[in-house]
Amino acid sequence: MPPHRLASLRRRIASYTLEIWLLFAGVLLLQGLILLLGLNPLANALAEGEAFSKRLYHLWLAGTVDLPLLLYYSVTLASPRQATLVMRWLNLRTTRTDGSPLRLGHAILRSLVMLIPFEINHIFLVWFSSPEGVPTQLVAQYVIVFGLSGLYILAAGRSPLRQSIHDRIAGTIIVHASA
């Protein structure tokens, strides 16, 4: 049994939902800044009447969305507080199942697995769209992305340690910070 009181599933879902909104705002700010500075190669190509490849588009998403999210989660979870900003606000932290602190490698692994639905969404946005960028497989995209997200929640709800898939793979649990 873990040495600390486990976070409830409701609190975990609230934390994750609030975190997604916070990170969405952060990504929008980053994208806006890059656009204002004229550093967005996709916008620059469109402004010059040029096309850009789907590969470049996917690399752009990886570099300006996926990588910042991976860094944010990995660094905050491996920090001395072992928590993201929202987790700190909700008095939660991530720990190893034995109660020991997360190391950066475990935080990266946990974050990579947790972000799989985001990357699947990007795959659909990039590779399953018309040449004009209009998504062509929205139903499949939503079924797979939301289905996988639901599977993550179901896994946490059915686990005695309330571990989702990414927690099980990385050997982590979410606990109350002041337990």
Which descriptors apply to this entry?
single chain, 179 residues, mainly alpha, two-stranded antiparallel ribbon, 8 helices, 2 strands, 6% strand, elongated
Mind explaining what this structure looks like?
- With 179 residues, the chain is mostly helical.
- The chain has one domain.
- Helix content is 64%, strand content 6%.
- The protein has 8 helices and 2 strands.
- It has helices spanning 9-36, 41-47, 54-77, 85-89, 104-114, 116-127, 138-158, 165-170; strands at residues 92-96, 172-176.
- The chain has a two-stranded antiparallel ribbon with strand order 1-2.
- Helix 1 (9-36) crosses helix 3 (54-77).
- The longest helix is centred in the first third of the chain and has 28 residues, at 9-36.
- The radius of gyration is 18 Å and the shape is elongated.
Please give the largest β-sheet: 2 strands, antiparallel
Helix/strand class: mainly alpha
Could you give the count of β-strands?
Answer: 2
What general form does the structure show? Answer: elongated
Q: What separation lies between the terminal Cα atoms?
A: 14 Å
List the strand order in the largest sheet: 1-2
Q: What's the SSE pattern?
A: HHHHEHHHHE
Which residues sit in consecutive blocks of at least 5 with pLDDT less than 50?
none
The domain count comes to 1
Helix content, binned percent: 55-70%
How much of the sequence is in beta strands?
Answer: 5-15%
Mean pLDDT: 92
Helix tally?
Answer: 8
Report the radius of gyration as a whole number of Å.
18 Å
